[in-house]
Amino acid sequence: MVLVKRPVELTGSPTAPVFDVQRFSIHDGPGIRTLVFFKGCNLHCDWCQNPEAHDVQPTVAFYADRCQESFSCEEVCSEQAINRSGFRINVDRCTVCGDCVESCAYSALRLIGETLTPEELMDRILTDKPYFDSGGGVTLSGGEPTLYPKFVSRFVDLCARSGIHVGIETAGRFSLEKCLPFLEKVDLIYFDLKILDPHQHEQTVGKGLKTILSNAEYLAKNGFPVEFRMPLVPGYTDTKENIDAAIAFLKSIGHQKLHLLEYHNMGEVKIDIVQGKQRKLGLSRYTAERLAAIAQTFEQAGITPR
Fold first, then answer.
1. For the chain, which residues score pLDDT lower than 50?
2. Per-residue pLDDT at 6
3. What is the CATH number of the domain that holds 141?
4. Domain-embedded: residue 4
5. Residues 288, 180 within the same domain
6. Of 42, 74, 235, 245, which is least packed with CB atoms within 10 Å of its CB?
7. Phi/psi of residue 48, each to 5°?
8. pLDDT at 277
9. Strand pairing partners for 227?
């Protein structure tokens, strides 16, 4: 079971935890885009690429390869939360004040996550607006952005006023009732389909498959700008059974296209820097031949791979 603690709303405006704003992306929607990554997720994919997003609370990351053991962090820490060996931060004592981060001349410590209002986030996005003339815009990612429907709804309204294209990436486990107010206003919805067998889904991704498929069907059959994606993970999502199930489901909802996302293991590097509990899978990258064979399977079944 994944417990997601929501951030406290400190002002009259809704808030949400954001751990990164990544600029000049060309892979998460049309044109040049700014990606906003939210902390917090209600699933637990074995292959997660953003382990720093699991917990909604801010955390201090430690890059051991950068550390010169000057221990300036220890000098400024009033909570005595600095370990002299192993992982530098004693997470049981740390209050995530950020003093150690500021004191480190080697960038070996980094604060991951901050609580923002939609207006504060919008101020940052507006500096990128000249680059959106390429037909780009903003893509909300995570974590799982639909955990913060009030925030997202307000932010989408702000983008609309400024003429900024908004996309959202979701794993689909959300309350349709709470999220419809902004889903009806976004320009693009990337919806991930992962494992379609209920038992396997619960074991490797989490609960909620019934909700995920119901939401996918609703969006597809009611004219929403939804595009489905499947992360290809060796031994998990690329089995014949799972591919056949995905094909059958897409056909059942009248959808004939699917983005195929090739697995990479770069997320595993980040597990150690946040002292994450995610298991390292050690999977190999796909060969060009294997990727072509998977794409051909979908194409022969009438599903156009992208």
1. 1-11
2. 46
3. 3.20.20.70
4. no
5. yes
6. 235
7. -50, 135
8. 86
9. 190
In a domain, 141, yes or no: yes
Together in a domain, 160 and 263: yes
Residues 6+ positions from 110 with CB-CB distance below 8 Å: 60, 61, 63, 101, 273
Give yes or no: residues 183 and 253 share one domain. yes
Please list the residues that pair with 25 across neighbouring strands: 33
Residues 6+ apart with CB under 8 A from 190: 28, 29, 139, 167, 168, 169, 170, 227, 229, 259
The pLDDT of residue 303 is: 97
Q: What whole-number distance in Å separates Cα of residue 303 and Cα of residue 306? A: 10
1 is a domain residue: no
The per-residue b/e assignment along 261-285, b for 16 or more CB within 10 angstroms, e otherwise, is: bebeeebbebbebbbbebeebebee
| 216 and 103 share one domain | no
Distance CA 106, CA 70 (A): 9
- The whole-number pLDDT of residue 5 equals 44
Which tokens is 223 given?
Answer: 């004219």
SS3 260: strand
Q: Could you tell me the CATH number of the domain that includes residue 88?
A: 3.30.70.20
Question: Do residues 216 and 258 lie in contact, with contact meaning Cβ atoms separated by under 8 Å?
Answer: no
Q: State whether 209 and 157 are in the same domain.
A: yes
Same domain, 184 and 239: yes
* pLDDT the model gives residue 222: 97
Q: Which two tokens stand for residue 90?
A: 């004693």
Same domain, 199 and 177: yes
Q: What is the pLDDT of residue 267?
A: 84
CA-CA distance, 193 to 275, in Å (whole number)?
Answer: 28
Range of the domain at 95: 59-109
Q: Which amino acid is at 4?
A: V
Q: Does residue 3 lie within any of the structural domains?
A: no
Q: What is the pTM of this model?
A: 0.91
Q: What is the pLDDT of residues 11-33, one digit of tens each?
A: 478 999 999 999 999 989 999 99
Tens-digit pLDDT profile for residues 84-99: 999 999 999 999 999 9
